[in-house]
Amino acid sequence: MQTESHDPINAECTIYLIPRSHRRKFFIQFTVMTALGWVVGGVVSIVFDKLVTDKLLSTFTPQLLNLWSNWGSYASLGLFAVIFAADQAIILRKYVSGWLWILTTSCGWLIATQVSTAWINYISSLAESLQRNLLPKEILIIGIVCTGAYIVSGVWMGFTQWIVIRRYTIEAWWWNFLPSIAFFVISLLVWLLSLAYDLFPTIYRDQILGYGEQGLTALTLGIVPAIALCRLKTKGKPTTT
């Protein structure tokens, strides 16, 4: 008579996308690679934009100039998004399709960024249409609304990533809202950092605030999804190759 196996390690592997024995290593690696992708992607996109603007723009034909004026920002943003997603995929490819993650995350980042930018520009244009100095209360309200637009735009990236996640997991509908949660945490941390602005040395205030915002953003974009990935239940035993 055969007895049913109750090996806790095998049971864990068949339940969660990231097995318990992998989680600490995965969390550290995913967070580090996300932060690295944020930094490298940002630097490369800036260098690319500067190279085209300073070196190549003068050689463009009128048609290329028109094309660059309309799509240049998308090229720089797309380059950043691909590098950012690729760094995450280096770690995630053991558990999901790396290529699909790069594709969906890049597309989601582009859509989310453009949607939030469009909403923020629209809100700003409404404020400018008043043609008067805004009251402090009005400035606060506009700031909150713009931040809300930024947070809600994360749903687009959540949806595109969910297209990949759902192929390997069950009950992952909440992933659609995960980037919005990350964006909310980023907004909260940046606001808290801004409260300490006057505490920084005057000569370094802007640099500290700028680098602090970038660092908090990079770490949050790594930590929040890393925790969430460890909670996802898989449809079958996850791959480890």
How do the strands and helices of this protein lay out in sequence?
Layout: H1 8-15, H2 20-56, H3 62-92, H4 98-129, H5 136-152, H6 154-168, E1 169-170, H7 178-195, H8 205-231, E2 233-234
Antiparallel strand pairs: 1-2
Helix pairs in contact: 2-3, 2-8, 3-4, 4-5, 4-6, 5-7, 6-7, 7-8
Structural description of this entry:
With 241 residues, the protein is an all-alpha fold. It has one domain. The protein is 77% helix and 2% strand. α2 (20-56) packs across α8 and α7 (178-195) runs antiparallel to α8 (205-231). It is globular and about 60 Å long. The two termini are 35 Å apart. Residues 1-13 have low confidence and may be disordered.
Q: Counting H and I runs of at least 4 residues, what is the number of helices?
A: 8
**Could you name the ranges where pLDDT drops below 50 across 5 or more consecutive residues?**
1-13
How many domains? 1
- What is the radius of gyration? 21 Å
Category by helix and strand content: mainly alpha
Strand residue percentage? under 5%
Summarize the amount of helix as a percent range.
Answer: over 70%
In angstroms, what separates the terminal alpha carbons?
35 Å
| Biggest sheet character | 2 strands, antiparallel
Strand order of the largest sheet: 1-2
Outline:
globular
DSSP strand count: 2
**Assembly state here?**
single chain
| Average residue-wise pLDDT | 86
Query: Order of helices and strands, N to C?
Result: HHHHHHEHHE
